[in-house]
């Protein structure tokens, strides 16, 4: 009997990057397409034919290359139940994708025993890609410099809220979550606030350009790929109330130096 093959994180990251290549070929071709098909899901969020096509393509490759692994995808749910689970958001930022805004990406993660250990964020309309695997650092590439070596990412060294630049998602989310007063309080204590949106806030954090990013109303597939990149860049990724991992409906990512201070403001006694 043939023994099941074991895969290293290097193997899994290589596959995740190949999945991102396949996803980019589909999503790039559908971005700003005049015949883009948009429908509304039961939760009243939009989905395009590109979202569905990307996830189908990824699932097809995973079925061939990692048949024993589980999958959690935004569009087609959960398949399989093992200690290894691929977590997919085919297009993070669908609303912007529909409107021709380039801040969207395919998010691909591998979680082992519930802990994301591989993450890839591929944003073809921006010409950028970010990736990480546990213990191997976080990296990015830019299509504007195609022959350059990947850049290793590192979070900022800002260590006081008064000097921090933050991205908060949207005021509506904080208001609906009952935390509007807290984000306003935080905004009064930091240097600069912006709402860059979706995955880009967290990648700017991993690159050292922002010091905190956070938002509510999230699913695991919105966060799983982000966490390894932030953490391998030296940052910390939890929920707004400090729980680790992408399973708690919200995200708070910081450069680490500001995490406790930010949690204290957002979770007053």
What does this entry look like structurally?
Helices cover 32% and strands 26% of the residues. It folds into 2 domains: 9-152, 2-Layer Sandwich (Fructose-1,6-Bisphosphatase, Chain A, domain 1), CATH 3.30.540.10; 161-266, 3-Layer(aba) Sandwich (D-Maltodextrin-Binding Protein, domain 2), CATH 3.40.190.80. It has 269 residues and is α+β, with helices and mostly antiparallel strands. The protein has helices at 9-30, 49-65, 94-99, 171-176, 180-187, 198-206, 220-223, 226-232, 259-266; strands at residues 38-40, 46-48, 70-73, 77-79, 84-92, 105-112, 115-123, 128-133, 138-142, 151-152, 165-167, 192-194, 212-216, 236-238, 250-254. The strands form 3 sheets. An 8-stranded mixed β-sheet has the order 4-3-5-6-7-8-9-10, sandwiched between helices. It has a 5-stranded mixed β-sheet with strand order 12-11-13-15-14, sandwiched between helices. The chain is built from 9 helices and 15 strands. The longest helix has 22 residues, at 9-30. The protein starts with 8 loop residues before the first helix and ends with a helix.
